Amino acid sequence: MNNAWLTVLKRDLLLALRRRSDVATTLFFFLIVSSLFPLGIGPEPAVLSSIAPGVLWVAALLAGMISLTRLFAADFEDGSLEQMLLAPQPLTLLVTAKVFAHWLVCGLPVVLLAPLIGLQYALPGDALLVLVWALLLGTPALSLIGAIGAALTLGVRGSGLLVALLVLPLYIPVLIFGAGAVAASQNGMSAQAHLSLLAACSLLALVLAPMATAAALKVSVE
Amino acid sequence: MLLAAQGLACLRGDRLLFKSVSFELMAGGLLYVLGENGSGKSSLLRLLCGLLMPEVGEVHWCGKSIKQDPETYLSNLLYLGHLNGLKDDLTALENLQMSARLADSLVDEQKMLSALTSIGIARCANLPVRVLSQGQKRRVALARLWLTESKLWILDEPFAALDAASIEVLASRLNQHMSDGGMTIITTHQDVEISAQSTQTVRLSA
Amino acid sequence: MSIHWFKYSSPQTFYPLAGKMIPWFAWLATIFLVAGLYISFAIAPTDFQQGEAYRIIFVHVPAAWMSMVIYIVMAAWAALGLALNARLSAMMAQALAPTGAIFTLLALVTGSLWGKPMWGAWWVWDARLTSELILLFLYLGFIALQSSIDDPRRADRAGALLALVGVVNVPIIYFSVKWWNTLHQGSSINMGAAPKMAMTMLTGMLLMALAFWMYTIAVALMRVRCIMLERERSSDWVKALSVGVKS
């Protein structure tokens, strides 16, 4: 069982390695979106640092979502998804492997890049640290929930936009807790509660989302 | 060991593709699924795999519904559909390795190479599948037949895009599978001689 | 489950039954609506703080209730359809979604109309209004997903899964929005601080809610009849029906 989990993980990481441009696109997107706000709002450091938590989280949300549309699409088109469905392994397990690979490739780089952008937004040191922690705890939930949307819209026309419509409302709690954590630390309060709630979101998503994703994949592959 | 289909019906959109399809397939048996284009051959195969839910009817493996115990069934099943299920960015060897590991069968590189040799594409073993031709890709996918321990093979147009020599190789592999007590369900447009302990046909009419 | 597909009788027997039920629910809706409007506009006293403007809650609150109830009912039908592979349940879910979305929209519009005299702004990021807005997004997502999938069976199942995921998320979203709201705005602005509920007001609201409920059932039944005809157009019973109409 673990063998299959590792196989899928290894496979997806290998594929990402051979298609490095896809990963770079996600990161560039994150970078560009978060660099647009200062240009639209003005370079006032006080203003920037007050909007930073929200802006960075929204940018991370959008970047994750854009890469999500590809999570199952390629496997769906070349038939390896139906082979995965026919493997004598629990599909939920394989789904978690795929989502984990996606997070390693698209989520983790965003987490690591975020403090750099936080500097552009004049965030102080401890807020940067909280930002990294919040993203680290929250982005897995984004990948897990997003996978449901990606699975539901497989092969549907206009699936990219549809995923956004389906998934973004579900992202709201993560956005609130994530941005709230950074804002709390900026205001000199403890971000503990926010971070715990983020971790809870991710854990809950880890338990429930793969099941929903597996069911959605079965529906979509019919 | 027995595969039994009982009164299967398949509905696509609001069109009834087929209804009351029943058959029993014993060890060593070969089943041809015949019918015109669009008569639902591929849908029947997908339905037998459990990829598609029948509108009515059930599929039983060794007396148990495949919905009840999917893992036993799937570990005995090898399905090859229209799509090859290969990743373009992986090499032929890597592709075979991944599918073998997913099926939980242990195969070493030597075995995989000899499988590729059997179907005549050993020299493509380390090329990314992206650069192979349609027929070569199909052969990489078919190389799984030399590595699997599955009893039931469900093959959708396995001879399509193959040259005469490969068709012969594949046919003899199918013969061997059936004489080992395996079962095969197949759709094909080619007239290929396959021998089996028992041969039956299901004809779907649109 | 060895029933033949075209003998799958539910839609066939339900179609005429629904047709008979619609007038009843429509009449009930009208009666409750008239009574509810009479109480809320003629009997309920003017609020000394908010004047006549407060009367909008007689529409706003029941609409908000309905928007949430319909989502839950819709998810329940969807779950039933998924579990039992029952087509009729999935059709009911599909039929309820637009009505739910309309009530959500109504709650949003009336909420902002009420907000203008109260807070001097058309839109306030009040926890309840924000939650209603997100609920509207959830409804729209459901409708968009169902309408972009061509195969009705896949549309049903995908929609059902989405509705279930949504129903799990609704309490989490509501809690998070509420938390966000208290953190950012304090409790000074809160729709919960409506005027104290007098007995007449409660009666008015309940009557309006009942009217909305009956309306929902009537409209959902009408819509489900249309969906049935469309989905089962090639089945014998629909053909027989259309022959009967022509002759």
Q: Mind describing the biggest β-sheet of chain C?
A: none
Order of helices and strands of chain A: HHHHHHHHH
Shape summary of chain A:
elongated
What Rg of chain A do the Cα atoms give?
18 Å
Task: Supply the number of helical segments of chain C.
Answer: 7
Stretches of chain C where pLDDT falls below 50 for ≥5 residues?
A: 1-9, 186-191
The quaternary organization reads as heterotrimer
> What is the total tally of β strands of chain A?
0
Strand content of chain C: under 5%
User: If you average the pLDDT of chain C, what whole number results?
Assistant: 83
> What is the radius of gyration of chain C computed over CA atoms, rounded to a whole number of angstroms?
21 Å
Average pLDDT for all residues of chain A: 91
Provide a descriptive summary of the structure in words:
The complex is a heterotrimer of chains A (222), B (206) and C (247). By secondary structure, chain A is an all-alpha fold. Chain A has nine helices and no strands. The mean pLDDT of chain A is 91. By secondary structure, chain B is of the alpha/beta class. Chain B is 30% helix and 29% strand. The longest helix of chain B is centred in the C-terminal third of the chain and has 16 residues, at 164-179. The two termini of chain B are 31 Å apart. Chain C is mainly alpha-helical and 247 residues long. Helix content of chain C is 79%, strand content 0%. Chain C contains seven helices and no strands. Chain A binds chain B through residues 3-4, 7-8, 11, 14-15, 18-19, 74, 77-80, 82-90, 221-222, and chain B through 46, 49-53, 70-72, 74-75, 77, 79, 81-90, 94, 98-99, 101-104, 128. Chain A: GO terms for molecular function: heme transmembrane transporter activity.
Q: What features would you highlight for this structure?
A:
heterotrimer; A: 222 residues; mainly alpha; 9 helices; elongated; C: 247 residues; flat; disordered N terminus
Describe the protein's topology.
The complex is a heterotrimer of chains A (222), B (206) and C (247).
Chain A: H1 2-18, H2 20-41, H3 45-68, H4 73-78, H5 80-85, H6 91-120, H7 125-152, H8 159-186, H9 192-221
Chain B: E1 2-12, E2 15-26, E3 29-35, H1 41-49, E4 56-61, E5 64-65, H2 70-75, E6 77-80, H3 92-102, H4 109-118, H5 134-142, E7 152-156, H6 164-179, E8 183-187, E9 198-204
Chain C: H1 10-43, H2 57-84, H3 87-119, H4 127-148, H5 152-185, H6 199-231, H7 236-246
Helix pairs in contact in C: 1-6, 2-3, 2-5, 2-6, 3-4, 3-5, 3-6, 4-5
